[in-house]
Amino acid sequence: MKTLNVHEAKTRLSAVLAEIERDGEVFLICRNGKPVAELSPHRSRSRLEPHPVASRIRIRYDPTEHLQPDEWAEEVGENAGGGS
């Protein structure tokens, strides 16, 4: 990981981005010696792989199962006939 101050990062931004693209280098940008940002190569995720958090969600019922009449909310059940 290379370190740059804010002035260097502003002055050399195009060259820094080219190095990130070419070598996959990661840059730490500091202001007054304190880290404030990190520039790293973009990594696209596969749309076919499940998200790590979503893979932990468990549904304990069949979401396609029809609701029984007593499970419908009152206002939904009354307006289900399409009347005004």
What does this structure look like?
- The chain is α+β, with helices and mostly antiparallel strands.
- It has a domain at 2-39: YefM-like fold.
- It has helices at 6-11, 13-23, 74-79, and strands at 2-5, 27-31, 34-39.
- Strands 1-2-3 form a 3-stranded mixed sheet.
- A hairpin with a 2-residue loop joins strand 2 (27-31) and strand 3 (34-39).
- It is elongated, with a radius of gyration of 27 Å.
- The model has no long low-confidence stretch (mean pLDDT 86).
Please describe the structure with a list of short key phrases separated by commas or semicolons.
YefM-like fold, 84 residues, single chain, alpha+beta, three-stranded mixed β-sheet, 3 helices
The overall pLDDT average reads 86
Instruction: Supply the CATH architecture of the domain at 2-39.
Output: 3-Layer(aba) Sandwich
Sheet of most strands: 3 strands, mixed
> Biggest sheet: strands side by side, in what order?
1-2-3
Q: What's the level 1 CATH class of the domain at 2-39?
A: Alpha Beta
